[in-house]
Write a structure and sequence with these properties.
It holds the Pfam family PRiA4_ORF3. It contains five helices and eight strands; from the N terminus they run E-E-H-E-E-E-H-E-E-E-H-H-H. By secondary structure, the chain is an alpha+beta fold.
Amino acid sequence: MSTKSASTQKIYQLKITLKQIRPPIWRRVLVDSDIKLSLLHSIVQIVMGWYDCHLHSWNIGGIDYGEPHEEYESDLLNEKTVKLNKVVPGEKFKFYYTYDFGDSWEHEILVEKVLPPTVDTRYPVCIAGKRACPPEDCGGAWCYSELLSILNDPEHPEYEEKMEWLEEDFDPDKFDLKQINSKL
């Protein structure tokens, strides 16, 4: 836990929802309100199940943040210098995280609650969620929906090909809270 007094420390309860996917894929996570956006990026990657192999950005109050790259011209403000509580004011505030600009996975993040810290809790911690993260490089929300249709039809001409491409144990309904928290 941080060295600041517990009376000044705030915990944000965030609900992270992958947009354009039905039924929804979401996670509920508790984070220290003064973490940097670069650390929140790592947390989102872990709790959602991504592998952090693509670029990402934030849109918070109409301002874009991310990790500037020398080879790309960008108007992104550096996420490594920005604390969450300086750009996200509190409860009911929504902001957005985009991962993989090719597949364009858009996440809506809602600050559901601002809480005091709990003495015996290590932050960040994932407290709930539903469904597995889509596989990396599957083509975005529309292609993922198509992939699920193929997986539900063993007679589909692409079924075997898609099964070979996927990880062996991929289950779109799986959510393993214990495994996620072991990685945080």
